[in-house]
Amino acid sequence: MVQSRKPTDCHPGATGAGRRIYDLLRNQIADGTLVPGARAPSTRSLAAELAVSRTTVTAAYEQLAAEGFLVTAMGRVARVASPLAAPAAPGTNASRRARRAPSLSGFGRRLTGIGMPALPDAEPVRFDFLYGAVASRDFPTLVWRRAYQAELLRQQRSLYYVPPEGDAWLRSALQGYLRRARGLACEAEQILVVHGSQQAIDPCARLLLDAGDAFVFEDPGYLMARRCFEATGARCLTTPVDEHGLDTASLSQDERVRLAYVTPSHQFPLGGVLPIGRRLDLLQWAARHDAWIVEDDYDGEFRYGQRPIDALQSIDTDGRVIYIGTFSKALSPQLRLGYLVLPPELVPVFRQAKRLPATRASIIE
């Protein structure tokens, strides 16, 4: 007979009689009180003993049967599955044993060895100098709510996934915006919508770098981008910056270099703007080395008192520049919306890469 006391170690967060009965039986199977092949109490007798409905007991038995702890059949008494090596019930001492170090891939091992910047303190402060924070009063709340509600109420034939490259209307709007604001001429098919600039950097690293390759990186520069590239096993070639941004005279001539990451419109974190001469030098360097240039235009829209500088990709005639844009600074980092503008030959593989972890883009947000 099953002991009718309430188990001392129920599943965390579980509530209800059915959950308590499930935990009671599973614990007794785990500790050997109910041995393999033993008959389980009938649902009728257990319901009467515990003063619950038979339906509640039956539901617990069905769950245990579905998980392989009990064997049930129409018209027959339920029995403990045999042979059975029951795992320890949640919360027991056996489940708290120290685990051995996990077996990881080369990528995983590199990732665990990479130092990441500490997350900022969430406590409110009077004067917030945190990088990337946007004042909430600057967000167009009313306009955003009207647009959001209009989209929710728009009649659609069906609710289905958006293609991995993103909503066609959004990409078309981005195409026009980039032409007006950033001097960048592209086709909507070259635009890939992502969840912020960091997700844009990740496929650039995974698809364009192998372990043993090298990449050029501004020094100082955006640490999270550097870590993303280093996680591939590629070697970082730090290149100094001055008041004008990247010093192109110091660009590495290493034959293994495959990529350069730059912030030409507003160097991060020093703020220099890369002049036209250096932009041309950088493009010529990329052509000589058959290398890609990742242009992170994280806040190129902002230029006080003057027209924003056109993007580096706007003068790229050789299809070397991958342009990254984001709405984190113009709208809100909580929006998690960014995009890439890709050379045409990279569009298929980047779309495929986005399908693997993210599957589809969001249309509501």
From TrEMBL:
<dbReference type="InterPro" id="IPR004839">
    <property type="entry name" value="Aminotransferase_I/II_large"/>
</dbReference>
<dbReference type="GO" id="GO:0003700">
    <property type="term" value="F:DNA-binding transcription factor activity"/>
</dbReference>
<dbReference type="InterPro" id="IPR036390">
    <property type="entry name" value="WH_DNA-bd_sf"/>
</dbReference>
<dbReference type="InterPro" id="IPR015424">
    <property type="entry name" value="PyrdxlP-dep_Trfase"/>
</dbReference>
<protein>
    <submittedName>
        <fullName>Transcriptional regulator, GntR family</fullName>
    </submittedName>
</protein>
<comment type="similarity">
    <text>In the C-terminal section; belongs to the class-I pyridoxal-phosphate-dependent aminotransferase family.</text>
</comment>
<dbReference type="InterPro" id="IPR051446">
    <property type="entry name" value="HTH_trans_reg/aminotransferase"/>
</dbReference>
<keyword id="KW-0805">Transcription regulation</keyword>
<dbReference type="InterPro" id="IPR000524">
    <property type="entry name" value="Tscrpt_reg_HTH_GntR"/>
</dbReference>
<dbReference type="GO" id="GO:0030170">
    <property type="term" value="F:pyridoxal phosphate binding"/>
</dbReference>
<keyword id="KW-0663">Pyridoxal phosphate</keyword>
<dbReference type="InterPro" id="IPR036388">
    <property type="entry name" value="WH-like_DNA-bd_sf"/>
</dbReference>
<dbReference type="Pfam" id="PF00155">
    <property type="entry name" value="Aminotran_1_2"/>
</dbReference>
<feature type="domain" description="HTH gntR-type">
    <location>
        <begin position="15"/>
        <end position="83"/>
    </location>
</feature>
<dbReference type="Pfam" id="PF00392">
    <property type="entry name" value="GntR"/>
</dbReference>
<keyword id="KW-0238">DNA-binding</keyword>
<keyword id="KW-0614">Plasmid</keyword>
<dbReference type="GO" id="GO:0003677">
    <property type="term" value="F:DNA binding"/>
</dbReference>
<dbReference type="InterPro" id="IPR015421">
    <property type="entry name" value="PyrdxlP-dep_Trfase_major"/>
</dbReference>
<keyword id="KW-0804">Transcription</keyword>
